[in-house]
Amino acid sequence: MHALLVLTLANIRSFLRDRAALFWTIAFPLIFIFLFGSIFSGGGSEPRDLGWVDEDGSARAATVREAFDATEDVVLTTGTRDDVLAKMREGDVDAVVVVPSGFGAAVDTATAGQGGPPARIEVYTDPSQSQQTGATFQLVGAVLGQLNLQMTGRGPAIVPQPQTIQTQDLTFISYLVPSILGMALMQLGVFSAIPLVADREKLILKRLNATPLRRWQLVGSNVVMRLLIAIVQTGIIVAAGAVFFDVQMSGNLLALAALVVLGSMSFIALGYVIASFAKTEEAANGMTSVVQFPLMFLSGTFFPIAAMPDVLKSVALVLPLTYLSDALRQVMVDGTPFAPLWVCFAVLIGFLVVCFGIAARFFRWQ
User: Fold this and answer.
1) What secondary structure, in 3-state letters, does the chain show?
2) Are 326 and 251 in contact (CB under 8 A)?
3) Long-range contacts for 12-21 (Cβ within 8 Å, ≥24 apart)?
4) What percentage of the chain has pLDDT greater than the value 70?
5) What is the pTM of this model?
6) pLDDT digit string (tens) for 163-213?
7) Quick one: 119 exposed, middle or buried, by C-beta within 10 A (0-12, 13-18, 19+)?
8) What is the Cα gyration radius of the chain?
9) Residue 153 above 60 pLDDT?
């Protein structure tokens, strides 16, 4: 273990001295986030298209409806709870207001002489669209504030009860941040081929192979180094999305960590496959580009796969980055799945096993 630790630290120092590697690993993904985030931040319209569900049918509910109708630029879509929530999932409305059964009686109790607990209306928003959610509650709060003043002149008679629902209408930046993380992990792994081939050309691998060090220690130190970089990458990208564009993590951190490790190892294995067949550093650069660009642009990194032509959709189905990015979106922002999460894990595990087998068979030390 001591040899593995020493080799890992040596690899990290070597990586930090390589400015090109630092750029492609850390700066390049951040450039995409800030470039597209500055253009599309706040993505999605203001919350003016509201679903309206009246399960009470009282005069009090009608009064609340009139107050929303009188608000400038607000358009209400009326229907049953199931119908209107389905419209919200499809992105046809921005939020849903539900007046529950018993609302009128609760308002009468709250405004009686002795007073009582305030009546509640349910407000459904999408937690992955934090800016739109904030604007929704600002609008609802303003409407209910006026009504409360008219009804009581003191404590609130009506308060909103927040509810959450996941829609298919992610903001662009919420879609982009997990995708950029997937792209960064892919590049981290694929670009591992270039220093490996360079070291083989310079006979460094041959000399290391002649030392008492075991091969698993040499390979393991390189893999551990890149996994540590992947963790740093993840922290930087997630922090940039949260701090500058208010992208909120809504998933399980353990699932995210598992995906980062599995995705990194899958593409590191692909990097070793490239290094197995590239005879020169120039060839490794060319092969890396040939692999990288289709993965980057045909895996739904910058736009949903559903928007692609049918031919390209078929290509996306066989690309591992499709499943890594899709899984990251599901875990990080509750994105609508392209494939079930277990399928994404299974594809990445299968890809890792296949690439590991090919690299174990064909990788050359000299």
Assistant:
1) CHHHHHHHHHHHHHHHHCHHHHHHHHHHHHHHHHHHHHHHCCCCCCCCEEEEEECCCCHHHHHHHHHHHCCCCCEEEECCHHHHHHHHHCCCCCEEEEECCCHHHHHHHHCCCCCCCCEEEEEEECCCCHHHHHHHHHHHHHHHHHHHHHHCCCCCCEEEEEEECCCCCCCHHHHHHHHHHHHHHHHHHHCCHHHHHHHHHCCHHHHHHCCCCCHHHHHHHHHHHHHHHHHHHHHHHHHHHHHHHCCCCCCCHHHHHHHHHHHHHHHHHHHHHHHHHCCCHHHHHHHHHHHHHHHHHHCCCCCCHHHCCHHHHHHHCCCHHHHHHHHHHHHHHCCCCCCCHHHHHHHHHHHHHHHHHHHHHHCCCC
2) no
3) 12/225, 12/228, 12/229, 14/195, 15/225, 15/229, 18/195, 21/191, 21/195
4) 90
5) 0.67
6) 877 655 566 777 888 999 999 999 999 999 988 998 888 888 888 777 877
7) buried
8) 27
9) no
Q: Tens digit of pLDDT for each residue in 17-57?
A: 777 767 767 777 777 677 666 655 544 445 578 999 999 99
pLDDT in tens, 302-312: 877 877 788 88
Q: Record the tokens describing residue 5, joined without a space.
A: 């630790």
Q: Note the pLDDT of residue 324.
A: 95
Which position has the token pair 């209107």?
Answer: 84
